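Notes continue from the previous slide.

Worked example: a multi-chain complex. Inputs as given:
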Amino acid sequence: MALAAIYSLFIINKSGGLIYYKDYCSAGRMDTNDSLRLASLWHSMHAISQQLSPIPGCTGIDLLQAHNFNLHCFQSLTGTKIFVVCETGAQNMETLLKVIYELYTDFVLKNPFYEMEMPIRCELFDLNLAQVIQKDRVALLGR
Amino acid sequence: MPPLTAPKSGDALFASVDRVNAELFTLTYGAIVRQLLTDLEEVEEVNKQLDQMGYNIGTRLVDEFLAKSNVSRCVDFKETADVIAKLGFKMFLGVTATVTNWDAEGTSCSFVLEDNPLVDFVELPDTCQGLQYCNVLSGVIRGALEMVSMKTEVTWVRDMLRGDDAYEMRVKLIKQVPEEYPYKDDD
């Protein structure tokens, strides 16, 4: 079985601004402008999907499946969105997103020098995130 | 693996978070209040500052609570109040509150705390009778609820430091800000 990999990770604040972007492989690497544009587009599409839903109470897109990649999105009740772009068939992405959300609350929000809604520049967050993603890859290798 | 969405119980939640020595916590808070009194001189100003500090904490804390407790969206304000009393207080203070005195519309209620770790060792001197020593707590609740689109007003009704038999915090829901985007306001 092919190894499923994460291509990139985005975190957007409640107003649709990109506050964190990280890519994990050279394929499809984006410059700052493109990643910002993509993030706000996703924010809008997420909002539109709620309007499209024929059943009230829709909270937006959780998973976008494309021919050759998947996008898993998690939105917290406070409006922050975290999404990963990964290979098709990557497993346990919901769990991964939840873990990333916990890391965000621990190492970003609890950092007294982090300004809310602003781009994330927290070394501890980077470090712990790298570990989690690494572990995720190891788990995948083990299967 | 348990389902991702199963909410934790108050005890499980309390067991899962890191804790510090209770005295360190209580004494640190005492030192902050003391310093504010020295800096601001006016008791009223200190109350305001404590509330503002609590608000700033609450806006950040709410995400941690949501991330670690696995609670999902509450259907109404009643459920929200219960979640705060049973899970929120337990997770961060190690105590639970009782929710009582609902008004007829279900928009305001009281949290009653029998036990409050912030006030161990505290005796309010005569010069500080107007001080809302625990104002940080009301600020936290106001800030946290605002992040999940509920505007509230939080006031203290009973305070053991002033001779009452318990701590009672009144929470009034002022308005629920809709989360939807205002698509239809172009006319």
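Summary box: Chain A touches chain B through 19 residues (CB under 8 Å). The first helix of chain A runs from residue 32 to 52.
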